[in-house]
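Reviewers asked in the last cycle whether our approach scales beyond single polypeptides. To address this, we selected a multi-component target totalling 227 residues and predicted its structure end to end. The input consisted of the following lines:
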Amino acid sequence: SAVISQKPSRDICQRGTSLTIQCQVDSQVTMMFWYRQQPGQSLTLIATANQGSEATYESGFVIDKFPISRPNLTFSTLTVSNMSPEDSSIYLCSVQGGWTGELFFGEGSRLTVL
Amino acid sequence: GENVEQHPSTLSVQEGDSAVIKCTYSDSASNYFPWYKQELGKGPQLIIDIRSNVGEKKDQRIAVTLNKTAKHFSLHITETQPEDSAVYFCAASIPVNNNDMRFGAGTRLTVKP
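The resulting structure, written as structure tokens, was:
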């Protein structure tokens, strides 16, 4: 299994500001995934981050709102831009465990937007 | 795309009893079915998974069954303990495309001592 570290673990933000979440993995991985978990809800995939190429966004998520960086095989960032209270969620970084398809998650970044 | 439904949304059992959570999926091409446990303030943790070439898998007090014909799979927890209290998510995917993994809505399990 992979060890995934996310920063910050939680933050309280003001409306209209932006926040960048960092994800560090203890091994090199091809794909990293960013999920959103709204309060009391399930996990929704935001985008897939591949090293050396643009991130692939799911329907309903756009790059201007959630820009992603993937500078190397162990690190990625997700920025939540121009935040509104509706962006209050847990944001989770995830990686695939080799060929078996298992997904491993970080502890999440809990954002509250006032 | 894949659609995963999970029931019940909440489940309360007495310590020592069994708990069963059920999921259905829509895409017959899905062949990988993991279960995740999420404790308060933590990320989801993989607890067991099953692939479509087997019908049942067991790991100590946890078991998962799969019926590919009916497109449903279930999580069984026996001899429940208070530390089993958490939110459980099922998911379905085609392993080579993890961006296709779809999660159920979750079941909040409470084990009363």
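Chain B has a mean pLDDT of 92. We regard this as preliminary and will revisit it once experimental data from Aim 1 are available.
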